[in-house]
Amino acid sequence: MSGLFENLDDALYEMANKSESNALQNIYFDSMRELRKQRSGIDRRFSQEVLRAYDRYWETGEVTIQQPTLDDLSLESEMSLVDDEDLEDSLAVTNMVSKSESRFTREIYAMSQRFAYVIGGGSVDESIAQHTPLAPSVVCNAFQTAMAGVPVELPVKLVVYKLFDRHVMHYIGGLYDEINLLLGRAGVIPKLTPKVRRNPVAPTLRGDGGGESYLASDSSYMSSTASSSPASAAAEEAIQAELFSNLQQLLNLRRSSAGGSSLLTSSLMLTPPAGNVPLVDTGELLGALNAIQQSNVVMLPQGHRVNQPLTPEEMRARLVSDLQIARDGQVIRSLGDADNDTIDVISMIFEFILDDYSLPDAMKALISRLQIPMLKVAIIDKTFFSQKIHPARRLLNSLAQAAVGWNDTGDRANDTLYNKIEQVVKRVLNEFHDDPGLFAELEEDFSSWWEKEQRGAQIAEQRTNQITKGKEQLKSAKQTVSEELNKRLLTQDVLPQAVMSILEDGWKDVLLLVYLREGSESKGWSESLEIVDKLLWSVQPKSEYGERQQLLRGIPELLRNIRERLNSISFDQHKMAKLFKELQNCHIGVLRGGDSSQMHTAGTMPVRRYEIHFPDSQVVADHSPQMDEIADETEILSEHDEFTQQAVDLETGEWLEIIDGSSKVRVKLSWKSKVTDTYIFVNRKGMKAMELTTFGLAKRLREGTAKKVETSPKPIMDRALDAMLSALKKTTSTSASA
User: Fold this and answer.
1) In the prediction, which pLDDT does 346 show?
2) What is the pLDDT of residue 395?
3) By C-alpha distance, which of 233, 3, 197 is closest to 101?
4) What value, to the nearest 5°, has the Cα angle with vertex 582 and ends 576 and 583?
5) Residue 459 and residue 77: Cα distance in Å, rounded?
6) Greatest CA separation found in the chain?
7) 119, 125 in Cβ contact below 8 A?
8) What b/e string do you get for 554-583 counting C-beta neighbours within 10 Å, with b at 16 or more?
9) Going by C-beta distance under 8 Å and a sequence separation of 6 or more, which residues neighbour residue 424?
10) Crossing angle of helices 371-380/391-403, nearest 10°?
11) Rounded to an integer, what distance in angstroms lies between the CA atom of residue 437 and that of residue 394?
């Protein structure tokens, strides 16, 4: 926290210098002074919130703070039209929590298990172990609460959150490590995590005597970040290690059936060695790979279309040539089994990537240039296959995930995502020699950049959906108001002109406002409809004396209710006075025992053909070229076929590739309307890209101009390894049966 406040002035000065107006500069300077005054209060409230959650945990075993996910925020925003500033504030905190949970999953898991062990008196209750009072969600929410009452603008608050993430949450793993160390030494599940700790302590606390206990250098830094599930972190490692072992066994079986050939030789149709041949040293192999890597750097273009990447088969051919493995089609040198296995597996992984439909072709070409660096990492560091959370794997996964929704506009020089991924690839090709730590740095930088991009896209998508939903709600409300009024008018044979004018010119807007503000189940809605019923009853003939007396008593309240509600919509006072005078004539006629519609005073002329509606009250989607596509097919498609079912089954968040001539555009389904049967699609930046109905989408699917992009929550490396395992099993089983 000290680091946060010590750097706050510099950060705000920098923002002020970048400001384009004096007003904005003043906001940053005023905020700077305000935050200095509030520093002790923020610090105190933050500590109190953390300690309150901590104490409650030891009393009840519960952690009451619930951090919403991005999906929760999306749903909340869609349902309640949450304020944009509140949404951005929550998104900033949610992203910070998500990043910290991912970074420190193993440490959090170990700490929660040990805390649960202490509460359980020597046994772990998994329901309690699901939570910890020092989880990132608790800490971040405590800080959000501490900042809630500070009178600063949202941009300033986001700067403070960024510094909190950098100076507090980035180093909180050191706290987790120290707690795990203390509890482990005290006999609380001492063998739950490795003894070597990896997380750095905050710079402001270094040299306090306690830092060295967990600042030891550790070559297993790769394992410091999280697997996808805390409860299965250790099991995940074992599964990954077993997976690579299985791959090796299956590769050996296939080589046996192929006469001992590896992919390095069999794909080039080289004859396996007849006997023992000299082995290629691993150092020599890495030297050859370095040469190929540098040639890939040269091939990278400067802002133009990417050349075709080096395919796995071309890479193998280069290795055979550069290492002089064969002469006249006969293998004269051989790689060690471990190196052979590693080359085969990495080759198959990148073959999978090049065949993966979820990635656009240009992105495949770009990402596939990492084949040689990934091969070098796998040769140098064998945890590459056994650790799902290896930085090189995570970098590859992150790049592939970000690339899914990318569209090739042809102007790659100004494409932020393409440029960012290209920068990452160039840095790997230029700078990676034998230190895998570069991947951790690049992965953190790219993830931070991508989170910012995603946050902007999420906010833009929320706004797109809010606008669309707002329009639809308005149309639906107008439809409901029209139906309610017309349903009542159908029961009337004739109606005085004054009453019709009140309903048409004013009361429909009263009902519309009540419906939008309070809903159809509200007291205000039912009262407003009841006033319509009383108004219609008041101008109908009254033959009975008792009815006329009832009308006489009820007129003042009826007029007062009508006046109040018309005033609420700022109805024209002069027009209201005229209509009320005409309505008075109608009531006088009824009180005299006559029929107001048969009178010939102002406003009492009968209206026999009437219907109240808004100009656009029929619920239809906004006109768009895509909507026109289905005009001629609606009747033909009255029965569902498989393509209609595919359209119905498409879920929000899924991607489509829309083909228009030679161009392809990727769009994500952002929202489905149950009222208008409208599908809203956005691009990766959250901007509205397309609007279709179910039948319009089915038509495109049927014609092949729309295709679902099959994505998976599994990272691309995991999917590639699973696919390889399945393919190798089929190959070996086929060979065995033959």
Assistant:
1) 87
2) 92
3) 233
4) 85
5) 10
6) 122
7) yes
8) ebeebbebbeebbeeeebeeeebeebbebb
9) 395, 399, 442, 446
10) 160
11) 12
Token pair for residue 551? 């009308």
Q: What are phi and psi of 333, to 5 degrees?
A: -135, 155
Amino acid found at 637: L
Write down the pLDDT at residue 137. Answer: 92
What is the token pair recorded at 291?
A: 């040469």
Q: In whole angstroms, what is the distance from residue 461 CA to residue 547 CA? A: 58
Asked whether the beta carbons of 694 and 644 are under 8 A apart, the reply is yes
User: Tokens representing 502?
Assistant: 């009140």
Separation CA 91–CA 68 (nearest Å):
9
Distance CA 441, CA 432 (A): 12
- Any alpha helices (H) in 133-216, and if so which ranges? 136-148, 154-167, 172-185
- R_g of the chain, CA atoms, integer Å: 35
* DSSP, res 307: P
CB 429 within 8 A of CB 375: no
Centre a 10 Å sphere on the Cβ of residue 133 and count the other Cβ atoms it contains.
22
Q: Which of 290, 294, 440, 425 is nearest to 362 (CA)?
A: 425
Give the residue ranges of the chain where pLDDT is below 70.
Answer: 66-84, 193-245, 247-248, 252-275, 296-310, 594-609, 616-640, 731-738
- Give all strands (DSSP E) within 552-705, no chain letters: 606-607, 655-660, 663-672, 678-682, 688-693
CA end-to-end distance (rounded Å), the chain: 68
The Cα–Cα gap between 718 and 724 comes to 10
Which of these, 38, 192, 159, 188, lies nearest to 92 by C-alpha position?
Answer: 159
Is residue 226 a contact partner of residue 102, using CB atoms and an 8 Å limit? yes
Helix (H), strand (E) at residue 71? helix 70-80
CA distances from 395 to 29, 355, 646 (A): 39, 19, 33
The encoded tokens of residue 84 equal: 């944009």
pLDDT of residue 339: 82
DSSP output for 565-581:
HHHHTT--HHHHHHHHH
Q: H or E element: which one contains 327?
A: strand 326-327
Listed as own residue / partner, the contacts of 540-544 with beta carbons closer than 8 Å and 24 or more positions apart are 540/492, 540/590, 541/590, 541/593, 541/594, 541/595, 541/596, 542/590, 542/591, 542/593, 543/593
User: Rounded CA gap, 164 and 583, in Å?
Assistant: 66
- Sole residue written with tokens 């006329």: 548
Residue 201 is given by DSSP the state P
Cβ contact 144:92 at 8 Å: no
User: What is the pLDDT at residue 17?
Assistant: 80
Q: How far is CA 660 from the centre of its chain?
A: 27
Instruction: Measure the CA–CA gap between 437 and 584, rounded to whole angstroms.
Output: 87
Tokens of 428: 């790997």
Residue type, 729: K
- CA atoms of 115 and 133, how far apart (whole Å): 9
Q: 671 to each of 407, 451, 688, how far by Cα in Å? A: 20, 22, 11
Sheet containing strand 655-660, edge to edge, reads: 688-693, 678-682, 663-672, 655-660, 706-709
Buried b (16+ CB within 10 A) or exposed e, 277-297: eeebeeeebbebbbebbeebe
CA distance 209 to 64: 35
pLDDT computed for residue 535 by the predictor: 92
